[in-house]
């Protein structure tokens, strides 16, 4: 048996070749091809993944534009999200569909980031601006929900924990704090920015929370998003694949298979060395202090290579990092 990690779920399959007649990733075989709702993969295209024995799961995922990371020795495979060409629309997850008609700030954070101290300020903005049709939705990138729990104890805004990294994958989040603005129609009003709600770590990130929060209020109250960039930054193929190896690493760490987990973590780091959501985010599962020496070594490595740790848009960027 193989464990399949896909679509935010975990299930067991007999192997990478799925018997004919089975549903694959939510798709069903029809006479004219494979269909899911109104979408169909024509039979002539699907033939590339089909054989007398069944349907090759990894090849079928490829037909859907979904990458796969496979570890047959450990009996696990991760299937990623499709490469989304609609970068203007916010991908749905959790509470987001229920907030149509409301402006939303998606606030990505983690307990391993100093940005956890900004949560009370985000909660205050959520309450202050609720009357203008605004909501904060906070997304913790913690791999263990228990690590996020104490920081969420007093919040009233919608909050989720992205313990499998799927939401970070959907929004191409490579570090925290990252904030995405979503308008009333579910469209991107402002893409992945480094945005702070307090100046607690201004000496490290060089960013003014005053300017950022003023811009947020202006958008919520006046409708001025202050930018013409209203599309998510797309991930590269390597970044997408790195997240799948990180998903395997997290799954293996949780089962005390450290050697295999570290192998996938190394692969992820090689594919996307700049992705701190992966490299720092997995440190707690590996018994490494995410505030300790290993993090500062990683930070120095990236800064020496000229890799920007923070990604603000220019209108609230004070220094180039």
Keywords:
19% strand, 3 domains, Glutaredoxin, 11 helices, 4-stranded mixed β-sheet, alpha+beta, 321 residues, 5-stranded mixed β-sheet
Give me a quick take on this structure.
This protein has helices at 43-46, 57-63, 119-129, 145-149, 166-171, 202-205, 209-222, 237-254, 258-271, 276-279, 293-304; strands at residues 2-6, 9-13, 17-18, 28-30, 33-36, 39-42, 55-56, 68-71, 76-79, 103-109, 134-140, 159-161, 178-182, 188-193. The chain has 321 residues and is an alpha+beta fold.
Strand content: 15-25%
User: What is the number of independent domains?
Assistant: 3
- CATH classification class of the largest domain: Alpha Beta
How far do the termini sit from each other? Answer: 47 Å
Structural class of the helices, strands and pairings?
A: alpha+beta
| H-E order | EEEEEEHEHEEEHEHEHEEHHHHHH
Please identify which CATH superfamily of the largest domain we are dealing with. Answer: Glutaredoxin
What CATH calls the topology of the largest domain is Glutaredoxin
Which sheet architecture does the biggest sheet show? 5 strands, mixed
Rg from Cα: 21 Å
With strands numbered from the N-terminus, the spatial order across the biggest sheet is 12-11-10-13-14
* Apparent shape: globular
Assembly state: single chain
Number of strands: 14
Tally of helical segments: 11
User: What is the average per-residue confidence, as pLDDT, rounded to a whole number?
Assistant: 93
């Amino acid at each position: 048996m193989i464990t399949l990690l896909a679509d935010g779920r975990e299930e067991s399959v007999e192997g990478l070749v799925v018997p004919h007649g089975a549903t694959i990733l939510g798709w069903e075989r029809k006479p004219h091809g494979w269909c899911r709702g109104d979408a169909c993969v024509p039979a002539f295209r699907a033939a590339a993944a089909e054989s007398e024995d069944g349907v090759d799961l990894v090849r079928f995922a490829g037909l859907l534009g979904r990458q796969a990371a496979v570890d047959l020795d450990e009996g696990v495979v991760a299937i990623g999200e499709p490469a989304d060409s609609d970068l203007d629309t916010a991908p749905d997850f959790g509470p987001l569909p229920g907030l149509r008609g409301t402006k939303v700030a998606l606030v990505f954070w983690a307990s391993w980031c100093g940005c956890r101290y900004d949560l009370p300020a985000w909660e205050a903005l959520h309450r202050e601006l609720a009357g203008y049709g605004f909501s904060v939705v906070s997304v913790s990138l913690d791999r263990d929900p228990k690590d996020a729990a104490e920081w969420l104890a007093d919040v009233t805004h919608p909050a989720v924990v992205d313990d499998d990294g799927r939401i970070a994958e959907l929004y191409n989040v490579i570090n925290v704090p990252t904030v995405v603005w979503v308008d009333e129609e579910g469209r991107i009003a402002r893409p992945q920015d480094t945005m702070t709600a307090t100046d607690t770590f201004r000496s490290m990130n060089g960013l003014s929370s005053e300017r950022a929060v003023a811009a947020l209020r202006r958008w919520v109250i006046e409708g001025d998003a202050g930018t013409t960039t209203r599309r998510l930054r797309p991930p590269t193929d390597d970044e997408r694949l790195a997240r799948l190896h990180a998903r395997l690493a997290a799954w293996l760490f949780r089962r005390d298979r450290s050697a295999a987990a570290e192998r996938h973590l190394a692969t992820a780091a090689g594919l996307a060395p700049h992705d701190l959501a992966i490299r720092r985010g997995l440190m707690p599962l590996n018994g490494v202090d995410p505030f300790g020496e290993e993090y500062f070594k990683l930070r120095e490595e990236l800064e020496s290579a000229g890799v920007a740790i923070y990604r603000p848009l220019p209108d609230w960027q004070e220094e180039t990092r």
